[in-house]
Amino acid sequence: MGLKGKEEMIVERSDLASMMGNIGAEVLSTHRVVLLMELAARNAIKDCLPEGKMTVGTFIRIQHFAATPLGSKVRAEASLKEIDGCRLVFDVAVYDKFEKIAEGENEQLIVSIDKFLARINKKIVS
């Protein structure tokens, strides 16, 4: 444990809540905050995964408590806090240049890439 990861981005028009139907909300959308958190968590462990394995997000709990406008730089940070078999739990937080804008917890499972894709392919051909 103790592994840390981060992910940064500049808020673009496609990242805004207004682009997802929240008319007038010209700020970073919550769903984009969630993605940023998951990417930071994956970055924390990407160099530690065995060949043929990947992680998939299975749970996220966040509070998004500050708005961030178009053009702002934001940074997500993740810290691995629990390992239970294939289950990894991260503390996650997102910051703009002024303040923490969101925080929470992200759970990821380590899975076999081949088995994961096989399950998906069964859904495609059915």
Quaternary class: single chain
Assigned CATH architecture: Roll
Q: How many β-strand stretches?
A: 5
Which strands sit side by side, in order, in the main sheet?
A: 1-3-4-5-2
Main beta-sheet annotation: 5 strands, antiparallel
Mean pLDDT: 94
The N- and C-terminal alpha carbons lie at a distance of 40 Å
Strand content: 35-45%
Write up what this structure looks like.
It is a single chain. With 126 residues, the chain is α+β, with helices and mostly antiparallel strands. The chain has one domain: Roll (Thiol Ester Dehydrase, Chain A). It is 23% helix and 42% strand. It has helices at 30-45, 113-125; strands at residues 4-10, 53-64, 73-84, 87-95, 100-112. The termini are far apart.
Short structural description:
Helix content is 23%, strand content 42%. It is α+β, with helices and mostly antiparallel strands.
Secondary structure: elements and pairs:
Elements: E1 4-10, H1 30-45, E2 53-64, E3 73-84, E4 87-95, E5 100-112, H2 113-125
Keywords, please?
single chain, alpha+beta, 42% strand, 2 helices, 23% helix, 126 residues, 5-stranded antiparallel sheet
